[in-house]
């Protein structure tokens, strides 16, 4: 596409809603929704159970967790917890540390 440079400089791009009102997404599905809410609630309950009943697993997974997420507000215990926040969280797990990797073979979102 050839566009004259002065046309680029003077072009006004209208966005609806205006970019000034844009927000930074905090999850993979900023609009939320019933199923998203249910899955998030299940994740909170599962992590609470893991912290209470399987603290050794939580410590082990925290030790092998990769990446960095400054000021992380996500409770990432294992790879399942990244599903809803993987676009905003800097943590990740190596494939060999992801015991839920088999779920990639299922034809559902992971
Ligand atoms: Zn994070």
Give a description of the structure.
The protein has helices at 5-10, 34-53, 55-64; strands at 66-67, 91-92. It has 110 residues and is mostly helical. A two-stranded antiparallel sheet has the order 1-2. It is elongated. The protein binds zinc ion (ZN).
- Spatial sequence of strands, sheet with the most strands: 1-2
Radius of gyration: 20 Å
Tell me, rounded to a whole number, the average pLDDT. Answer: 87
Percent in strands:
under 5%
- Globally, the shape reads elongated
Total helix count? 3
The strand count comes to 2
Point out poorly predicted stretches: none
Biggest β-sheet, characterized?
2 strands, antiparallel
Bound molecules: zinc ion
Q: Which helices and strands appear, and what pairs or packs with what?
A:
Blueprint: H1 5-10, H2 34-53, H3 55-64, E1 66-67, E2 91-92
Antiparallel strand pairs: 1-2
The site of zinc ion has 6 residues, from loops.
Attribute tags:
mainly alpha, two-stranded antiparallel sheet, 4% strand, binds zinc ion
In short:
This protein is mainly α and 110 residues long. The chain contains three helices and two strands.
